[in-house]
Amino acid sequence: MDENKIIVTISGKDGIGIVAEIATVLAKYGVNIEDIRQTIMQGCFMMFLLGDISKSKYTFKEIKESLTQSGTKLGMEIWIQKKEIFDKMHTI
Amino acid sequence: MSFFNEKSIIETINMIKVHNLDIRTVTLSLSLRDCCSENVKDVGGKIYNKIIKYAKNLYKYASEIEDEYSIPIINKRIAVTPISIIGESCKEYDYIYLAKVLDEVAKEVNVNFIGGFSALVEKGCTKGDLALIESIPEALKQTSRVCSSINLASTKAGINMDAIKKMGEIIKETANLTADEDGIGAAKLVCFCNVPGDNPFMAGAFHGYGERECALNIGVSGPGVVRAAVENLPKNADFGELANKIKQIAFKITSTGELAGRRIAEKMGIPFGIIDLSLAPTPAIGDSVAGIFQAMGLEHAGAHGTTAALAMLNDAVKKGGIMASSYVGGLSGAFIPVSEDAGMIEAAQKGVLTFDKLEAMTCVCSVGLDMIAIPGDTPASTISGMIADEMAIGMINKKTTAVRVIPVPNKSVGERAIYGGLLGEAPIIPINKLSSEVFINRGGRIPAPIHSLNN
After folding, report:
1. Å from A38 to nearest chain B CA?
2. B255: which chain A residues are within 8 Å (Cβ-Cβ)?
3. Per-residue DSSP letters for B170-236?
4. Inter-chain CB proximity A88 and B12 less than 8 Å
5. Which of B20, B196, B229, B433 could cysteine-pair with B287, CB 3.0–4.6 Å?
6. Cα A36 from Cα B445, distance rounded (Å)
7. Pairing between β-strand B424-427 and β-strand B272-279 as defined by DSSP bridges
8. Cβ contact (<8 Å) for B252 and A61?
9. What is the pTM of this model?
10. Which of B5, B70, B252 sits opposite A81 (nearest CB)?
11. Distance from CA of A16 to the nearest CA of B (A)
């Protein structure tokens, strides 16, 4: 398991500039995007992003705070979690 | 490069957001055996300094992990060596002072409960044990975060009936001294049979004799997640399927707790102890063990079949959880505290969940008669009778059992005891009015049971 991997999950009403906003923040904070997927689920836009924070000079907490602000600005629900929790919970 | 699965992410977020998955407690378990001294003030000073040294970053590190995984860690707590032993080293006993030290240091390090104002007296009391027991009512009145537990029986030693008689009186007095808060003192006092020394849950947590210097123990929860999973199964799914589903959920809950526990322990530089995989309900809607019974198809907790449902649930939780962690311990199973479970409260209020049914359920649940409000005028000998019954169930069945009943001062059946927070609120339920007095007054010890002829 790698504690430098993070998963960003965004959900809410689809609109222009969601990916751009999040990607801008991640670029500013030195987070490399390794994978990004989006889908519409029950009429709700959802985006999942896998990021690597190992090259970032910021802490997880700082990155999370900034992304949370972006989520609020976009009017979207945003979750920022270390990827370990998903690996541990769903793998035997 | 690594991979992820959207379905798993949505499931995890839903478990946390919709179904109240949380880590119920991270409990620092700490030995105080090196805090003994002839002078009680020295003991107090040593206890204070040692707890500060080990626990000063507990709250901070637990909060950091909470943030990293976005999973709530509800309680940060401390469990210490039974204080009866530590206080016994003093020339003059002053257990109330030691309770106040524990309370003060708990506030200082920002933990909401500190457990270990305890004595293990299943075979008999030492002078210190007795002094501690006698100081419980005043200690729990003068403190807000201290929890007390007394082990009164075990499968190996039998049942200490002298101590049970005493505890009936102590529980009443403790409730009476905190009458202005519906007897909340008694909600922080629990009597055990076969008590485990690594339980992270309150009010019964303490640092057991065979434990190392310190360890971080974790209590996970998630009745809401189990209820939702059972509800999503078809109504005609058989018990094999039901048990499997519960095992899968228990695995997921436990592995999350194990991850968080190990990370916090790592940050604190102390060993990870055990994970207690208990379904501990909260008063939040849906986060209810009684709700699981309803999802299984019982009209309400208390219906015929409830004991079977609980037995299956308890066992499946253990089987699923044990796969997810190297070290499982504590109480592990399903809790049935009445005041802390919205579904249980409703069933008790309607009169469909009775004291006797609760007692039957304790034969197969993970602990015992828990957070049950009873009339304030219940005689001490009747409370002792309840404890004796519960201890007998534990002793004969080689399991942990416990009693945490609250004789609510100046209130009677139909009224409510209100505590707030995780302790919740409970309707006062009727109890058997027959006298147990002569039986309890006999005293002595019920001998340990035979271990053959199992029938």
Report:
1. 10
2. 88-89
3. HHHHHHHHTGGGTTGGGGGEEEEES--TT--SSSS----TT--SEEEEEEE--HHHHHHHHHTS-TT
4. no
5. B20
6. 68
7. unpaired
8. no
9. 0.95
10. B70
11. 22
Average pLDDT over residues B341-363: 96
Domains defined along chain A, listed by start: 5-90 (3.30.70.260)
The per-residue b/e assignment along B211-229, b for 16 or more CB within 10 angstroms, e otherwise, is: beebbbbbbbbbbbbbbbb
Residue pLDDT, tens place only, A5-43:
999 999 999 989 999 999 999 999 999 999 999 998 888
Q: Determine which of A80, A86, A89 to mutate to test the interface with B (most B C-beta atoms within 10 Å).
A: A89
B1 has a pLDDT exceeding 80: no
The tokens describing B247, both together, are: 């095992």
Q: Does domain B215-443 have CATH number 3.20.70.20?
A: yes
ipTM: 0.94
A89 vs B4, B64, B255: nearest CB: B255
Higher pLDDT, B284 or B204: B204
B70/A5 touch (CB, cutoff 8 Å), yes or no = no
**H or E element, residue B345:** helix B342-350
Helices B223-231/B289-296 angle, 10° precision: 10
A50: nearest CA in chain B?
B4
Round to whole Å and give the CA distance between B285 and B20.
9
CB B143 within 8 A of CB B101: no
Q: Which residues of B touch A50 (CB under 8 A)?
A: 2-4
Identity of the residue numbered B420 = G
What was the pLDDT predicted at B2? 65
Q: Which two tokens stand for residue B58?
A: 């507990």
